[in-house]
Amino acid sequence: FLLLNTFIPISLIVTLEIVKFIQIFFIQSDVFMYAKENGNFGKVSTFTINEELGQVRYIFSDKTGTLTCNRMELQLLRIMDNLYGDSSILGNPAEEDKLGDPGNEQLGSFVRRQITKSVLDIDYSFDDKELIEVLSGQKRMVPDPSTTILSHNRKKEYVLESEERRCREFLQLLATCHECACCKNKQGEILHYQGPSPDEIALVESARQIGLVFEDVANSKLFLRQEAKISPEGDEELYQVELIQTMEFNSDRKRMSVVIKDRDGTIKLYTKGADSIIDKRLDKTQTDPQMYSNVEKFLYDASVKGYRTLMMAMRIIDDEEFEDWNTKLQAAKTDISNRDKRLQECFEEIEQNLVYLGCSAVEDKLQENVPDTIADLQKAGISIWMLTGDKLETAENIGKSCRLLTPEMKGYTLDYCDKGRLKKFLHDREKEFKNKKSPEKELMLVVSDALKVIFEDKEMKNMFVDFAMRCIAIICCRAAPSQKADVVRAIKEKCKGEITLAIGDGANDVSMILEAHIGVGIFGKEGMR
Question: CA nearest 505: which of 20, 71, 104, 133?
Fold first, then answer.
C-alpha cells in the first residue's frame, strides 16, 4: 500500500466505502424486499454484500418457507383405510376430465377455501361432511369396521369397535400429540395456536375445526373440548387427559410422541412423523397387509402431488410395561452426566410395536414468482441446489412445480444406499464426461438416502462433487441440517474461487447459511436465530 499510494488516492478508497454504505441503504429501503406479513425490510450485515452477490455461482436453498410459503393447509386425512377430504386432488382421471386444464384445479381449491373462510373467518380448506356425520353417529359404515389393539405383552387389549371410535381416536391424537400453545383473548376465546412448526399448528387447527378443540395444558393435564356437532348426544363436553411424557420432534428423530393416560385410565402412546420412520416401528402382526398396501399407495400419490405427508400411530401400554419403563425414565431424568443419551434410549424403547392409526396430506404452496426467478438464475449459469428434509416424491414434485427440474433436462436419481452400486454409478459418470467438455443436455440430479453413504467415503465424495458441478439443478432430500452444511462445504472446498449463497428460513438451515460465503435468512414463520 505504501508503494502504490501515489497511484491510488486514499480519497478513492473512502469514496468506495461511502458508495457501499449508500448501496446498503438502498437495499434496506427496497420496497420489493418488504415483507407485508411481519412488517420487515431487508437487513444487511456486511458492506461487501453487493460485490459478492454479483459473483454467485452456486445457490443452496431450503424448500419449506423459502421456495414455498410455509403456509400449511390440511387437504386429506386417511383414518385407518378410509379417506376423508376431496380425493379428486390426487388426480382421479374422471375428475380431471371435469376440471379441464390444471389451472381449474387450483381455482376449485381457491373457491373451496374462500367459502370455508367466509364461514369460519380463518384460512382453512379441509371440509368433509361424511367425517362429521360419522363422528356424530348420524352415519354408520356397513359393515362397521372394528380394530383391536393389543399391548406388547398381549395382557391388555383396547377395542375401537366402530368407524366412529377410530375417527375419534385419530382426532384425539391430533389434539394431544403436539407442542402447541393456545393464545386466547381476555374473554377466553381462542385466537390462534403457536407451535414449533406450521405443520403442527395446521393439524391442531384442523382438529379444532372438525370439532375437538385443544383448550390448554396445565399441571400435566391436557384440556380438550368436544363440540356438540361431533357428539352423538348433541352436547358439548369439556374433558381432560393426563400428559405423562412428551418426546419432542427433532431432525434426527423425525417424529414426535406423547404418553397420556386417557379418561378411562388407559395409558397410550401417540406418535406422528415421517412415514419411513413410523413404518420401521410398526407391529406388523397387528397390521392388515391389504390395508397398509392401500395406505402406502395413498402416501405415494400424495407425495407425487407435492403434499407433505405424516403418518400417525399409537400403542397401548399395559400397567406392568408402564411401571418398568417409567422407572427407567425417572432414572434417566436424574442422571446429570448422561441424561440426554439415556432419555433418548427410553424414548426409543417405548416408540416400538406401534399400531397404524392414520395419515395426513398437507399442502404448502409455492412463493410468488419462484418459477420465473429460478429460470432466470439458471439462464445466468447459476447452479441451484434444493436441500430439504422432505421425502423424494414430494421434493421432486416441488422441483418440477417451481421449474427447477424441466422435461428438457437429462435426469439421474440416487435413491439407494448400496455403496458398491453408488461407486459404480459415479465411476460410470466420470468416464462418460471424461472426453466431453460439456454434456449434450442440461443435467439434473436427485439424491435421497445416498447422501450419507457418499459423504462417508472421501473418493465417492470427490466424484459426487465433480458430477454435481456439471448439473444445473440438484435436489438433496431427506437431508439433515448437518448434511446441508456438508454439501455447501464440499462445494466451497472444490471450487475455491466460486461464491456460494445459502438461503433458508428455519433453525435447521442455520448451519448451511453459516457455511456459505453469503447467508440469507428469511423472516419466516419458524422464528429467527
Answer: 71
Q: Verify whether residue 199 is a known catalytic residue.
A: no
- Quote the cell numbers at residue 493: 472446498
SS (H, E, C) 79-138: ECCEEEECHHHHCCHHHHHHHCCHHHHHHHHHHHHHHHHHHHCCCCCCCCHHHHHHHHCC
The helix (run of H) or strand (run of E) holding residue 247 is strand 237-247
pLDDT averages per 10-residue partition of the chain, 529 residues? 66 85 89 81 85 90 86 90 88 40 35 36 68 90 86 92 94 95 86 85 92 92 94 90 93 90 95 92 92 93 88 95 95 92 94 95 87 91 89 85 86 86 88 68 77 89 89 88 92 89 88 92 67
Is residue 499 a contact partner of residue 54, using CB atoms and an 8 Å limit?
no
3-state secondary structure of 147: strand
* Residue 513 · residue 520 · CB < 8 Å: yes
Radius of gyration of the chain (CA): 26
Give 171's contacts (C-beta < 8 A, 6+ positions apart): 135, 207, 210, 211, 212, 230
Long-range contacts for 132-138 (Cβ within 8 Å, ≥24 apart)?
Answer: 132/210, 132/211, 132/229, 132/230, 134/163, 134/164, 134/167, 135/164, 135/167, 135/168, 135/171, 135/210, 135/211, 135/230, 136/229, 136/230, 136/231, 136/232, 136/234, 137/164, 137/232
pLDDT single digits (tens) 127-179: 788 999 999 988 888 788 889 999 998 999 999 999 999 999 999 999 999 99
Q: How far apart are CA 315 and CA 258, in angstroms?
A: 11
Burial class (CB in 10 A: 0-12, 13-18, 19+), 519: buried
Cell numbers describing residue 268: 397410550
CB atoms within 10 A of CB 206: 23
Q: What does the alpha-carbon distance between residue 61 and residue 386 come to, in Å, rounded to a whole number?
A: 5
And the C-alpha cell for 302?
Answer: 400424495
User: In terms of DSSP bridges, do strands 147-150 and 157-160 run parallel, antiparallel, or are they unpaired?
Assistant: antiparallel
**Predicted TM-score of the model (pTM):** 0.79
Compute the distance between CA of residue 343 and CA of residue 329 in angstroms, rounded to an integer.
7
Which of left, alpha, beta for 39 (phi over 0: left; psi -120 to 50: alpha)?
Answer: left
Kindly name the residue from 62, 279, 390, 486 that is annotated as catalytic: 62
What's the rounded Cα separation, in Å, for the pair 311 and 120?
A: 27
In DSSP terms, 493 is beta-bridged to: none
Q: What is the pLDDT of residue 304?
A: 85
Q: What is the pLDDT of residue 6?
A: 64
How many other CB atoms are there within 10 angstroms of residue 229's CB atom? Answer: 13
Rounded-to-10 torsion of CA 203, 207, 210, 216: -140
